[in-house]
């Protein structure tokens, strides 16, 4: 089992930055990959970014590439999502998720992650 708790969301203006944090606990965190997903009102949950257990591999959706950086600190069992140059279309509830990836392509699929946090809300005003 893995327990995940997100934090760091809030109301910001377009162009601002936010760092989301995901605090993990539970023995199954090792050697799980961690992904960030988001869900905007009326839309399906979508992939944002993911990082492998060692941090050596990262994946990003094209919509956030160049603006978002995912990182992890396994000693602290923390995963971070640094978001810069935020846009109104980034408004969503952001979730972190953990799981073992069967292949690199699996990183972008929500089905690869059996463990999910409750989410943190990000609102970007124009």
State the end-to-end CA separation. Answer: 40 Å
Poorly predicted runs are none
How many whole angstroms does the radius of gyration measure? 13 Å
Helix content: under 10%
The number of distinct β-strands equals 11
What structural category arises from helix and sheet content?
A: mainly beta
Please trace the helix and strand order, writing H or E for each element: EEEEEEEEEEE
Mean pLDDT over the full residue set: 96
In one word, what is the shape?
A: globular
Output the number of helix runs. 0
Largest sheet: 7 strands, mixed
Strand portion: over 45%
Structure described in brief:
The chain is mainly β and 126 residues long.
Secondary-structure blueprint of this entry?
Elements: E1 3-7, E2 10-13, E3 18-25, E4 33-39, E5 46-51, E6 58-60, E7 68-73, E8 78-83, E9 92-99, E10 115-116, E11 120-125
Parallel strand pairs: 2-11
Antiparallel strand pairs: 1-3, 3-8, 4-5, 4-9, 5-6, 7-8, 9-10, 9-11
Molecular structure report:
This protein has strands at residues 3-7, 10-13, 18-25, 33-39, 46-51, 58-60, 68-73, 78-83, 92-99, 115-116, 120-125. By secondary structure, it is an all-beta fold. The mean pLDDT is 96. It starts with a strand and ends with a strand. The protein has no helices and eleven strands.
What attributes characterize this protein structure?
126 residues, mainly beta, 7-stranded mixed β-sheet, 4-stranded antiparallel β-sheet, 0% helix, 48% strand, globular
